[in-house]
Amino acid sequence: MELAVLKHNGEDTGRKITLSDEVFAIEPNDHAIYLDVKQFLANQRQGTHKSKERNEVAGSTKKIKKQKGTGGARAGSLKSPLFRGGGRVFGPKPRDYSFKLNKKLKQLARKSALSYKVKENSLLVLEGVSFDTPKTKNYIAFLNGLSLADKKTLLVLPEVNKNVYLSSRNLPKAKVVTVDSLNTYELLNADSLVLCEGSVSKLENILS
């Protein structure tokens, strides 16, 4: 399939780029997408949550009242979860939430996400983006030229461009990544995907 290549101000360059059907026009696999997004979100979790159980709570181990004759339930320790300040029953412990996915499955998930973007007409290809200095207003003008100012956008660069990244950093709906760090979650989370012309061939090489 072919898409028109645009300038960074939204004007048509008059050229077209051919996108690989193996990457941008496959039958999407929803389960692969689900697994890849689940892994991404799981990897973001620190897993440092912790609460004290009864053997970790500070306090006396003296029996707080006699066993019988009080008219109440028997109690042997202030550390019991039944008392205020006692330990917690089966509380959270530090753990690692990450899990492994096969490389081919992750590739399938990204291809599926890209194919969805093409089907939704949410994919744009630019000949290139570069700024002389890092200024947020430059990036806002760039989005206005593409009529994307009010949408969540994901700009994919072929290589690191510090000025472009710093210009977008203060905008809550704008995100800039390189081809190497592109993931399924960010693809699906964006309303519009903007690929630089140089990113297309790199992306096809990675996912082919």
TrEMBL record:
It comes from Mongoliitalea lutea. GO terms for cellular component: ribonucleoprotein complex; ribosome. GO terms for molecular function: rRNA binding; structural constituent of ribosome. InterPro entries: Ribosomal_uL4, Ribosomal_uL4-like, Ribosomal_uL4_dom_sf. Part of the 50S ribosomal subunit. This is Large ribosomal subunit protein uL4. The gene is rplD. The keyword Glycoprotein does not apply. NCBIfam families: rplD_bact. One of the primary rRNA binding proteins, this protein initially binds near the 5'-end of the 23S rRNA. It is important during the early stages of 50S assembly. It makes multiple contacts with different domains of the 23S rRNA in the assembled 50S subunit and ribosome. GO terms for biological process: translation. Pfam families: Ribosomal_L4.
